Amino acid sequence: MAEAKTVHSPALTYFSMISLLTLCPPFVILLWYTMVHADGSVLQTWDYLKQHGLQGFIDIWPRPTAIAWKIIACYAAFEAALQLFLPGKTVEGPISPTGNRPVYKANGLQAYAVTLITYLSIWWFGIFDPAIVYDHLGEIYSALIFGSFFFCIFLYIKGHVAPSSTDSGSCGNIIIDFYWGMELYPRIGKNFDIKVFTNCRFGMMSWAVLAVTYCIKQYEENGKVADSMLVNTILMLVYVTKFFWWEAGYWNTMDIAHDRAGFYICWGCLVWVPSIYTSPGMYLVNHPVNLGIQLSIYILVAGILCIYINYDCDRQRQEFRRTNGKCLVWGKAPSKIVASYTTTTGETKSSILLTSGWWGLSRHFHYVPEILAAFFWTVPALFNHFLPYFYVLFLTILLFDRAKRDDDRCRSKVREILETILRKGSIQDYPWNLLRDPDSVTNRDKPT
What we know:
Elements: H1 10-37, H2 42-60, H3 66-85, E1 89-92, E2 103-106, H4 108-124, H5 131-135, H6 137-161, H7 174-180, E3 187-188, E4 192-193, H8 194-222, H9 227-245, H10 247-250, H11 254-257, H12 263-277, H13 279-286, H14 293-322, E5 336-342, E6 348-354, H15 367-378, H16 390-413, H17 415-424, H18 438-444
Antiparallel strand pairs: 1-2, 3-4, 5-6
Helix pairs in contact: 1-2, 1-6, 1-12, 1-13, 3-4, 3-6, 4-8, 6-12, 8-9, 8-12, 8-13, 9-13, 9-14, 9-15, 14-15, 15-16, 16-17
């Protein structure tokens, strides 16, 4: 039985977990209600709840309907089939703490193209109207909230009864096990990876599908699509396209390689992504803004530039790792730190950390363009209401927390090097270009 290790203090950890478990589901419904039925005004929703109390909240919570379950089931089955049957290159993930190396089929970009082409085709040929999804959005979110919660219970039981690999186990605390998850790489059968499905093929794919849905709904309502909606939709689609182009790289990130499959990751991707991440477009359906050609182009260019920089940061690191540091970064040989660490099985391994290019600017520089990109696809809503910017605020908090967890994980692996860096300055903003000779750092500045 493993010891429960947490990044924050136990009190803060439990408070955060209980808060997210209890507050996130109703927040999804309140956000949908405010965007769709309360003119995007938090004050209007607040006044309604003050007048009607708990019963008022119960009244606005949509009940899952048969059509909502059908839409979810058809979408999930379609994406699962694409994940299983579309061809793709075999890709290996990073070696896990217990020495396992997961194997994936990289067919996300193909699945993304097939999904959008199919969705637009069934609308164009009159087979299915995507506006129906918007009209039943509250019911769909409600069904996802309950369905995904039971799915997380399934993952908890599976982790106890039938784990897919040795990268699993209980910390002895049912709340932490349910929230953080039991298994690192849960699978159904040999080939169906659950986290690839929840994170990529359901969650991220729904982001693109709903962005298109909001655009079509506004077109059907108004006979045209406002330039604000076009800018929002284009930037979101560019971002999601970038994600699926780089999906194999995502499998090396904290979400897949370090966070286990529990409420935090799986419920978040199944519910939080389709609702919160798409919320600026949800708002714009009923609040079209005329930006004008010039401002639209400025926002588009700025947003696409941020998305490209975010992609290039990840590409630099991925290429650096793929070639074991034998590549060029910005036309020059990269600087790096080489560190050794011991796995949970007692095996000694080494890691190389890129400290030049974008990664020479700061430890987590790639989060900066990601936050800015979110701002640029939200700013077409202008500033009449705060709620469309909730995703930008949430993303900022999420990435700061992720940076801390990543630094703490690295600190546990390469403690001496990071303690040296921390003596010199902040881990977030340390001038990595001063560390071009890792041997001189580890020998000259080793803590006594």
